[in-house]
C-alpha cells in the first residue's frame, strides 16, 4: 500500500474509533429536545443503514416509523426492534410509487398527526467493484433522486411546527460530490452553475439528470464528461446533494417555529447488500452521522454535507 493510502487508512480508522467513542456518550437532558411523542420516519429501513438508523433513533426514545416497500419484510425487521422494547411502528412505502407515498402520508396524518424527522435513506446501486454499467441508470436516477425528492415534497406539508424545527436527513454519498478532486462532472461551467446558489434551481438539477439519461439512451454517456466511478449512481447522488442545498435555501424563508432543517451525509463504504458486504465499516457506525444530524440541537445547521460528523464540501 502506498504511503498516502496508508495514511488515509490510519486517519479513517482513527476517526471511526472516535465515532465509536462519541456513540457511547449519552445525550444530556438539555440536548434532548425529543420524547416518545417525536415522530421519525426512515425510508428503506428494512435492512442495511436504514434499519440501523431506525433502531438507533428508537433507542434514543423517539417513536420511529420503519418503512419498507415489502410489507412482510418490513414487519419482520420491525419485530426485531420492537422486541428490544422500543417505540416503533411500521408501514409500507415504495418511494417510486406516488400512490404508495400518498397512502403513507394519509396513514401517518391520521395516526400521528404529523412528522418531526424524515430520514431519506432508500436507494439503489447496481454497480459493484470496478463495474461501471449504466444498464439500470433510469431506475437509479428515478429512485435515488426523483423518489427521494417526491417523498420529501409529500412529507413537508405534514412536518410539524416546533420550536426546535423539523429535520430532513438525506443519506447521500461522496461519489456525488460536485467539486471532489476525482469523480466529478468535467464541465466546469455546469459545475459552477450547480454550485452557485444564485444559479442552482430544481429545473437545472432535473435538466442535468435528464441530459445524462438521454446520453445513456444514445450511448454517448462515456464521452459526456460525467463522473467516472459508478457513473449513474454518482449522478443520482450529485442531484440529491444539490437538491439538499436548494431545499435548505427555499425552506430558510419559513418563520421561526415552522423551520425545517435539511442536510445530507455520506455514510462511508458500508458492509451492506449494496456493496455486496464489501464495505469497510459496519452499518451501526454508518448510521451514526444520520442519527446525529436528525437529533442535532444546533438549529443553525442546514444545507450542509457531512461525513463522520464533520462537514465536508459539496
Ligand atoms: P441496502 O441495499 O442494504 O438498502 C437499501 C434500502 O433501500 C433497502 O431497504 C431497499 O429496500 C430500499 N429501497 C430501494 N428502493 C426502494 C424504493 N423504491 N422504495 C423504498 N425503499 C427502497 O443499502 P444500504 O443500506 O447500503 O444503503 C442505504 C443508503 O445509503 C442508500 O441511499 C445508499 O445509496 C446510501 N449509501 C450507501 C453506501 C454503502 O457503502 N452501502 C455508501 C454511500 C451511500 P429492499 O430491501 O426492498 O430492496
TrEMBL record:
Highest taxon above the source species: Eukaryota
Keyword NAD included in the entry's annotation: no
SUPFAM superfamilies found in the cross-reference section: NAD(P)-binding Rossmann-fold domains
GO terms of molecular function: oxidoreductase activity, acting on the CH-OH group of donors, NAD or NADP as acceptor
Matches recorded under Pfam families: adh_short
Keyword tags: NADP, Oxidoreductase
UniProt name for this protein: Short-chain dehydrogenase/reductase
Amino acid at each position: 500500500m502506498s504511503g498516502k493510502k496508508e495514511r488515509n487508512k490510519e486517519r479513517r480508522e482513527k476517526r471511526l474509533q472516535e465515532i465509536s467513542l462519541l456513540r457511547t456518550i449519552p445525550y444530556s437532558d438539555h440536548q434532548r429536545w425529543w420524547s416518545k411523542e417525536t415522530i421519525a420516519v426512515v425510508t428503506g429501513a428494512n435492512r442495511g443503514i436504514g434499519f440501523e438508523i431506525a433502531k438507533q433513533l428508537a433507542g434514543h426514545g423517539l417513536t420511529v416509523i420503519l418503512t419498507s416497500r415489502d410489507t412482510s419484510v418490513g414487519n419482520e425487521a420491525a419485530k426485531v426492534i420492537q422486541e428490544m422494547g422500543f417505540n416503533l411502528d411500521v408501514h409500507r412505502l415504495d418511494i417510486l410509487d406516488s400512490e404508495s407515498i400518498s397512502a403513507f402520508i394519509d396513514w401517518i396524518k391520521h395516526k400521528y398527526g404529523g412528522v418531526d424527522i424524515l430520514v431519506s435513506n432508500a436507494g439503489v446501486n447496481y454497480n459493484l467493484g470496478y463495474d461501471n454499467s449504466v444498464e439500470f441508470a433510469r431506475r437509479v436516477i428515478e429512485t435515488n433522486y426523483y423518489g427521494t425528492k417526491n417523498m420529501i415534497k409529500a412529507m413537508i406539508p405534514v412536518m410539524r411546527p416546533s420550536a426546535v424545527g423539523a429535520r430532513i436527513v438525506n443519506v447521500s454519498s461522496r461519489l456525488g460530490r460536485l467539486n471532489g478532486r476525482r469523480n466529478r462532472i468535467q464541465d466546469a461551467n455546469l459545475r459552477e452553475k450547480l454550485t452557485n446558489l444564485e444559479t442552482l434551481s430544481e429545473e437545472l438539477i432535473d435538466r442535468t439528470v435528464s441530459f445524462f439519461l438521454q446520453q445513456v439512451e444514445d450511448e454517448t454517456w462515456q464521452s459526456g464528461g460525467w463522473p467516472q466511478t459508478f457513473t449513474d449512481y454518482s449522478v443520482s447522488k450529485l442531484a440529491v446533494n444539490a437538491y439538499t442545498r436548494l431545499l435548505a435555501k427555499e425552506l430558510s424563508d419559513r418563520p421561526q417555529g415552522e423551520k425545517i432543517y435539511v442536510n445530507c451525509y455520506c455514510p462511508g463504504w458500508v458492509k451492506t447488500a449494496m456493496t455486496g458486504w464489501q464495505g469497510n465499516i459496519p452499518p451501526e457506525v454508518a448510521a451514526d452521522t444520520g442519527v446525529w444530524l436528525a437529533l442535532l440541537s444546533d438549529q443553525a445547521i442546514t444545507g450542509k454535507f457531512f461525513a463522520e460528523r464533520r462537514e465536508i464540501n459539496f
